[in-house]
Design a protein that fits this description.
The complex is a heteropentamer of chains A (397), B (293), C (244), D (320) and E (232). Chain C is an alpha/beta fold. Chain C is 39% helix and 26% strand. A 6-stranded mixed beta sheet of chain C has the order 6-7-8-3-9-10, with helices on both faces. A 4-stranded antiparallel beta sheet of chain C has the order 2-1-4-5, covered by helices on one side. With 232 residues, chain E is of the alpha/beta class. Chain E is built from 10 helices and 10 strands. Classes of the chains: A alpha/beta (397), B mainly alpha (293), C alpha/beta (244), D mainly alpha (320), E alpha/beta (232). The complex binds adenosine-5'-triphosphate (2 copies) and magnesium ion (MG) (2 copies). Chain D: One of its GO terms (molecular function) is branched-chain amino acid transmembrane transporter activity.
Chain lengths: 397, 293, 244, 320, 232
């Protein structure tokens, strides 16, 4: 199958995976997606006629280990590129080492660290839209449909800051107002006592939580409010990998969530979503086909898939033959302008900005209807555009 | 929300945390007090308690209450058995040397935690509460189950207090902690006492975990927080003082909740941690400790 | 020289809860003497010397050493001033070698004259061990020695401090008769360069060594005088000696 | 004691350093980078050992000293243009100052209370970093700007992205630390530290100011840890709050206990072992910490005093 | 009733007991004399199972007890007063005594008898034992051992640190116990104290019983003393 290649040496891709630590739920699914995508790539003849070999290293969701893992990929496994990292602090911790080791580092983290230009030329985020763009595109719909006075609850942690920094201006731009910002320390396991801080005149409660305590958060919100509650809008991160059919979550019925890619197969499900679901082994409810109790991180993990196909695309257009072509590979990535919806990009079409290395795509807003979610609105790409100041291409390679 | 209700809520939450913390800390205190073993794996016994509760509850899926109460009995027993075995296999052979046992219990921590990750997985999983009852107060709603946890913890506490201060077992345990050799010379089978104490300590943590798991979910990393807090409570309360443990747990439970009425959460945590640390600095023997050891 | 007062207490008291362990004690010791402090168990002897050494703080009263008020001086400074204390309950470094135990004392003594070489410390330590007859056990771990030998080590540590006032709290406890004899000789020798305050229950030793005896009872001084006087004192016989 | 013994000790340490110097010519790339990192962490552990191994004070908040160096140096390099050498010095000073303050307060306690109090101060330090997220970016952290990767020092151009330079810088710092500690623990202070560990009341009654000695040990220990932190931040270009978390305090404890508390080389050995144990095990299983756990338990069963500690006890009593 | 033969005990690589042998009959006081470090305490610890014998046997009424776990030994009726008292220092006097009672489920009567011997303790039942004076602690240690209602009592330097009148009390107690038919092993440093209570004397040297003789022999020939323990 790899007949036309000068060499059948595999292309090695380092997958930096949160197998353990607080990111483990995501890591597990990221790994499944990566395996599925690589299988397809290899079945179709690999990249430039060479098979792709996936090398997985666990970073323990820890920035120090993350940096070590990047070093290990670069110098021991001698991979051609590294991808996959989710948690912001791990990305930020490992990025400098990737830059210095001249190792292409493609993350799937949503964070604004890539798009804001604070990392380096070797860091890319082609598979998933950054939080700033997500938030910007949500704001108009929120203010128009749910209310103008917004209270936000977010983790006092990197991921939360992207929301904290970007939501208020976006809401304000729509004539709304963020009336209270409640930062919850990342170590918190119980939230009830933060809830009274929510002003009574709040129209919309905007919540975003990560980590294992998310379910507690939602449950306690339910206990607190009962049936009289403001409109609630959340980022799906709060219930990623969590079964919506859990009795405690009944309270979420009628609330809204941002989803990168809709967990429940929609009526107008695209053929690409169908194909992608089948390849990864996810059923129509977003759970593992093997175990319906094993819920995926569906709204995010597509980013891994799209990143892998982006790598393939760029390597092919660069005629990538080995590590000496890394610069060409980077430039090829930067030269990408858009992705079309299709098998390689099942979430939808995207614009890619080669200057700040960030992709911009459509976002979904879904409503919880009796333990499933249905998309009620899909934003346009333009909704999420903002002025890009960063320019990595000015940095040397 | 007005200040009063806010305070009420913070207090309720503080009581809940204090209740669970007291039970967990009591287990640690027992092990530390009697065996002089700093059991770093204590939090993992707590975690195991929650995980086994999930496991039992999902096996007895007929009614949440059935699953829960079976778990309340079965889970601590399994955890106790695991603790018992590890005491026999590891700690005993180390002769309870303080430094070695720290390393060994860190090792146990990893073993338990990672085995859970391999088998149970990285997700947080809920256990249904035995009953669902929401108390609607004029300002907010509150879970009736939370109040049940507080009461259950108090009942457990009284039971432990009775055993420690009113029974022979308690006397034996207190004697053992001062002088192992002399205790043996008076017919106390210290090996059995130690294994029992270690298992009992773990079981207390497991009970606390089963009580809390309908509110907090079982997760393989959930052990760290209770471990650290328990240590603080045990030392702050004064070693071996049951009353101290309760008071310290209340203090810890209530302080950052109430302080967070006035400050932002992270700042509140900073201030309350600092305050508690300073209490210890100026009263190193703990609030109710006899004297510094 | 013999008449110079080395240490004096005025109204020294210490209470434990309601118990007056040491009660209004006025006490003075002259330079160069061997003073014995005796009294029933629980009379407050250990408490009294703990006050002198600064291990515990008095509830009232003052302590004067070489004319200076040292009541508020921390314990370790008193040691440097020259008040050394050997514990009634053996307190050594069980995991360290016998030599290191004593070397620590020697090092402390030499803090007063800085710039001491390790060789000097070693020499002083060995000399002190020689005195108590442990010089053949330098390398042994202190904790593995028998109780009696640990007591001797304790004394050696006191010696190596080169104190002006050496307080010995029941030093012959646990020593066999043979060792006691050596010990008496040792104390005599020490007394040539230092003042000794000796707490003892072993009456023959007290009678043989002491220049003056102070008897403590219920935290108060019951009697003070020469060995002969004390032996003849009816109150002392009743309170302490039993028969006499 | 004797001159020959001193020679033997010096020879051993010089040999270890020489070996570390020489292996750089044969180490494969990855291990080259890894060893650089391990050496910096070993410095941290050695600082820790100064307090725990020799003085017997178990601190669970040492990450705060590491973080003081990390942030002191890192924030200086990130926000000012004072230059890297000055930033490094500032990092060390931050650690020294912090350890002095913490020492004055925390040393009023002993034993487990000390352990808990330091842990809580450590938590406060961690929370402080996350509280000032506007400057620190909290958990996410900051990466060093390009200006902090290249600088001129004494007329030399230093490029911190150069792996060879980094390795040898780390080694130099390690060597300095090693000899400072060696001199301290073999000198009169070392003996007093050990005496405090073994029996503090007695040491006080031997006329030593135990509080001041402990404070000294804590400051030395904190400063060394801060130096490791400062070096870490500057060499690897990242500072983040997770370095101040309790896990990193426990890590130092673990390195020390594994290698042998109260031995000069123990923490170095412990750091190397622990790193490779995790690194190798993680290639085979996601549950590499399970392997680590089993290894720890086995180690402690057969080497109860840590590796070097047990070797010293059984075979080489002269080991410092 | 107690028979020890050929005990070897090691501490690490050094041998502390080298073939120690003793016998003790009912109602007899056997006194161990010897220099510091001779192995007297170790002998008692070996009887109690606290020091493990590599070789040799300890028989109580003919039954082997050296292989029992340490906590079984007191349950067979051997009471131990350790050197240095070793009380449960944070427990009260009463609790210390209760620990003794617990061992053999002894009746209350035993406690009353023990307290009758030491009226001083009666007054201080509620005090934390660590704060007792040295002499009081020694009484408590002895009383605690009596609480297990032993048939054999091992006393390791019970008069250490006691005032003369108290030494006399302890001596009287030992005599009383003997008269009650208890067998007693007494380790003592003070020869005069020994002479007045012992039936037989055993000189311990270098980990073995060098010579055992009726106390009368010692009274008759004080030079024996200097021969075995170096006292003139
Ligand atoms: N920390 C303490 N708390 C309470 N009481 C104490 C404390 N220390 C000593 N005592 C009491 O003070 C009294 C005097 O004790 P001290 O140890 O001074 O006696 P002593 O004369 O040395 O007796 P001995 O000859 O038995 O050693 C005793 O009754 C003792 O119980
Ligand atoms: N735990 C131990 N480790 C090593 N050696 C020990 C230990 N215990 C006792 N020894 C050694 O055994 C020997 C006998 O000690 P033992 O305590 O039996 O003497 P003893 O006759 O009771 O002396 P004393 O009259 O001083 O109490 C001593 O030389 C001592 O060094
Ligand atoms: Mg006394
Ligand atoms: Mg003895």
């Amino acid at each position: 199958r790899y007949a036309q290649a000068q060499t059948s040496e595999p292309i090695k891709l380092g997958f930096e995976c949160h197998r353990t630590g607080i990111g483990a739920s995501y890591g597990r699914w990221y790994e499944r997606v990566a395996n599925a995508a690589v299988k397809i790539i290899n079945d179709e003849g690999g990249i430039n006629g060479r098979p792709v070999q996936l090398i997985v290293e666990d970073d323990g969701t820890d920035p120090k280990r993350g940096a070590e893992v990047v070093e290990k990929f670069a110098t021991q496994h001698k991979v051609d590129a590294v991808f996959g990292t989710l948690f912001s602090h791990v990305v930020v911790g490992a990025a400098p080492r990737a830059g210095e080791l001249k190792m292409p580092y493609l993350v799937v983290s949503e964070g604004t660290h890539v798009s804001s230009g604070s990392l380096n030329r070797y860091c890319f985020q082609p598979g998933i839209t950054d939080v700033r763009s997500q938030v910007t595109s949500m704001a108009p719909w929120i203010t128009k449909n749910l209310g103008k006075k917004v209270t936000m609850i977010f983790p006092d942690y990197a991921f939360g800051y992207d929301h904290r920094d970007n939501l208020p201006p976006a809401i304000k731009a729509q004539g709304g107002q963020v009336v209270e910002m409640i930062a919850v320390p990342p170590t918190e396991t119980s939230f009830t006592r933060y809830l009274p801080r929510i002003p009574t005149d709040t129209d919309v409660l905007y919540h975003i939580m990560v980590g294992p305590a998310v379910l507690t958060f939602v449950t306690e919100l339910g206990q607190f409010y009962g049936s009289q509650r403001p409109a609630i809008f959340g980022f799906i991160d709060s219930v990623e990998a969590v079964n919506l059919a859990t009795p405690q979550l009944g309270f979420l019925d009628g609330t809204y969530f941002w989803e990168g890619m809709p967990r429940y197969a929609q009526k107008d499900q695209s053929q690409w979503d169908k194909l992608y679901r089948a390849a990864v082994g996810v059923d129509d409810n977003g759970a593992s086909k093997a175990d319906p109790k094993d819920i995926s991180t569906y709204a995010h993990m597509y980013g891994v898939w799209e990143t892998l196909f982006t790598i393939k695309q760029a390597m092919q257009s660069a005629g990538y033959a080995g590590p000496k072509d890394k610069a060409k590979f980077i430039e090829a990535l930067e030269a990408i302008e858009k992705f079309d919806e299709g098998r390689d990009h099942p979430q939808g079409d995207k614009i890619f900005n080669g200057k700040n290395h960030q992709a911009y795509g459509h976002q979904n807003i879904s409503k919880v209807n009796g333990a499933r979610m249905d998309v009620v609105h899909r934003t346009s790409i333009e909704d999420g555009m903002y002025e890009v100041k960063a320019d990595y291409t000015k940095m040397s390679l | 929300m007005a200040f009063g209700p806010f305070l009420l809520l913070a207090t309720l939450e503080g009581l809940l945390q204090a209740a669970v913390l007291t039970l967990t800390a009591l287990g640690l205190s027992l092990v530390f007090g009697v065996m002089r073993v700093v059991n770093v794996a204590h939090g993992e016994f707590y975690m195991l308690g929650a995980v086994f509760a999930w496991w039992v509850a999902s096996m007895f899926g007929m009614h949440p209450a059935v699953g829960f109460f079976v778990a309340l009995i079965v889970s601590p027993i399994i955890v106790g058995a695991i603790a018992f075995a590890s005491e026999r296999l590891i700690l005993k052979r180390l002769n309870y040397d303080p430094e070695s046992t720290i390393v060994a219990t860190i090792g146990m921590l990893y073993i338990i935690q990672q085995t859970t990750l391999l088998t149970y997985g990285p997700d947080a999983r809920p256990v249904p509460a035995p009953f669902y009852y929401r108390i609607q107060l004029p300002w907010f709603g509150y879970s009736g189950y939370n109040l049940f946890v507080i009461v259950a913890a108090i009942v457990m506490l009284v039971a432990v207090w009775f055993v420690l201060s009113r029974t022979r077992l308690g006397l034996i345990m207190r004697a053992t902690q001062f002088d192992r050799e002399t205790a043996q010379a008076f017919g106390i089978p210290i090996e059995r006492v130690y294994a029992f104490v270690f298992a009992a300590g773990a079981m207390l943590a497991a009970i606390a975990a089963v009580l809390i798991v309908p509110i907090r979910q079982a997760h393989y990393l959930m052990g760290l927080d209770p471990l650290l807090l328990s240590f603080i409570v045990v030392i702050l309360g004064g070693l071996g003082s049951l009353r101290g443990t309760v008071v310290a747990a209340l203090l810890i439970g209530l302080s950052d909740g109430i302080i967070s009425v006035f400050f932002s959460p992270t700042l509140a945590k900073m201030i309350s941690t600092l305050l508690v640390a300073l209490v210890l600095v100026f009263k190193p023997e703990g609030l109710f400790g006899a004297k510094a050891r | 020289m013999a008449s110079v007062t080395l240490l004096r207490t005025k109204g020294l008291s210490r209470q434990f809860g309601g118990l007056k362990a040491v009660n209004d004690v006025n006490f003075a010791i002259r330079e160069g003497e061997i003073r014995a402090l005796i009294g029933p168990n629980g009379a407050g002897k250990t408490t009294f010397v703990s006050l002198l050494s600064g291990r515990i703080a008095p509830s009232a009263g003052s302590i004067e050493f070489l004319g200076n008020d040292i009541t508020a001086r921390p314990a370790h400074k008193r040691v440097r001033d020259g008040i050394a204390y050997t514990f009634q309950i053996t307190s050594i470094y069980p995991m360290l070698s016998v030599f290191d135990n004593v070397a620590l004392s020697a090092q402390s003594a030499l803090q007063r004259s800085p710039g001491a070489k390790p060789a000097v410390i070693a020499a002083k330590a060995k000399e002190a061990l020689e005195h108590v007859g442990l010089s053949d056990r330098l390398r042994d771990r202190a904790g593995t020695m028998s109780y009696g030998h640990q007591r001797l080590l304790e004394v050696a540590m006191g010696l190596a401090l080169e104190p002006k006032l050496l307080i010995l709290d029941e030093p012959t406890q646990g020593l066999s008769d043979g060792e006691i004899e050596n010990f008496c000789r040792l104390v005599k020798e020490i007394s040539r360069s230092a003042t000794v305050l000796l707490i003892e229950h072993n009456m023959p030793v007290v009678m043989k060594l002491a220049d003056t005896i102070t008897v403590l009872n219920h935290g108060e001084i019951l009697a003070e005088g020469s060995p002969e006087n004390i032996r003849a004192n009816a109150a002392v016989q009743a309170a302490y000696l039993g028969t006499g | 004691m004797t001159a020959s013994r001193t020679m033997r000790v010096i020879a051993l340490h010089v040999a270890v350093l020489a070996a570390l110097f020489l292996v750089q010519f044969v180490l494969p790339d990855y291990h080259y980078l890894a060893m650089t990192r391990v050496m910096v962490l070993a410095i941290y552990a050695m600082g820790y050992n100064m307090l725990f191994g020799y003085t017997g004070l178990l601190s669970l908040g040492h990450a705060m000293f590491f973080a003081a160096g990390l942030y002191g140096a890192g924030m200086t390099a990130y926000y000012t243009d004072l230059g890297v050498p000055l930033a490094f010095l500032i990092g060390i000073c931050c650690g020294a100052l912090l350890s002095l303050i913490i020492g004055l307060v925390a040393l009023r306690t002993t034993g487990v209370a000390f352990m808990i109090v330091t842990m809580m101060f450590g938590q406060v330090a961690y929370l402080t970093i996350t509280y000032f997220t506007d400057y620190t970016r909290g958990e996410e952290g900051l990466t060093m700007p390009a200006s902090a990767r290249n600088f001129d020092f004494l007329g030399l151009h230093v490029d911190l992205t150069n792996a060879v330079l980094r390795y040898n810088l780390a080694l130099a710092l390690l060597a300095i630390t090693l000899f400072v500690i060696l001199i301290l623990v073999r000198g009169p202070m070392g003996r007093v530290l050990i005496a405090i560990r073994e029996n503090e009341p007695r040491t006080l009654m031997l006329g030593f100011d135990t509080f001041r000695t402990k404070l000294g040990a804590l400051v030395v220990s904190g400063t060394i840890s801060a130096m490791a932190g400062a070096a870490y931040g500057l060499l690897f270009a990242y500072i983040g709050a997770s370095f101040a978390s309790i896990q990193y305090s426990i890590e130092a404890l673990l390195f020390t206990l594994l290698g042998g508390a109260g031995t000069v080389l123990g923490p170095l050995l412990g750091s190397i072992l622990m790193f490779y144990m995790i690194d190798i095990a993680s290639e085979y299983t996601a549950a590499y910490l399970l392997v680590t756990g089993v290894a720890l338990v086995l180690l402690v069963l057969f080497f109860p005093k840590g590796i070097l500690g047990t070797i010293r006890e059984r075979w080489l009593p002269w080991l410092p | 009733m107690l028979e020890i033969s050929d005990l070897d005990v090691y501490h690490g690589s050094s041998q502390t007991l080298k073939g120690m042998s003793l016998t003790l009959g009912k109602g007899e006081v056997l006194c161990l004399l010897g220099r510091n470090g001779a192995g007297k305490t170790t002998t008692l610890r070996a009887i109690m199972g606290l020091a493990r014998a590599q070789r040799g046997s300890v028989r109580l009424d003919g039954a082997e007890i050296s292989t029992l776990p340490a906590h079984e030994v007191p349950r067979r009726g051997i009471g131990y007063v350790p050197q240095g008292r070793r009380l449960f220092s944070e427990l009260t006097v009463r609790e210390n005594l209760e620990i003794g009672l617990m061992t053999r489920r002894s009746p209350r009567r035993v406690l009353d008898e023990a307290l009758a011997l030491f009226p001083r303790l009666q007054e201080r039942l509620g005090q934390v034992s660590g704060t007792l004076s040295g002499g009081e602690q020694q009484m408590l240690a002895t009383a605690r051992a009596l609480c297990i209602d032993p048939s054999v009592i091992l006393l390791d330097e019970p008069t250490e640190g006691l005032m003369p009148s108290m030494i006399a009390t302890i001596r009287d107690v030992i005599v009383t116990l003997r008269d009650h038919g208890k067998a007693i092993v007494l380790v003592e440093q003070r020869v005069e104290a020994v002479l007045s209570v012992a039936d037989r004397v055993c000189f311990v040297e270098n980990g073995r019983a060098q010579a055992t003789m009726p106390v009368q022999d010692l009274r008759d020939d004080p030079s024996l003393l200097s021969r075995y323990v170096g006292v003139g």
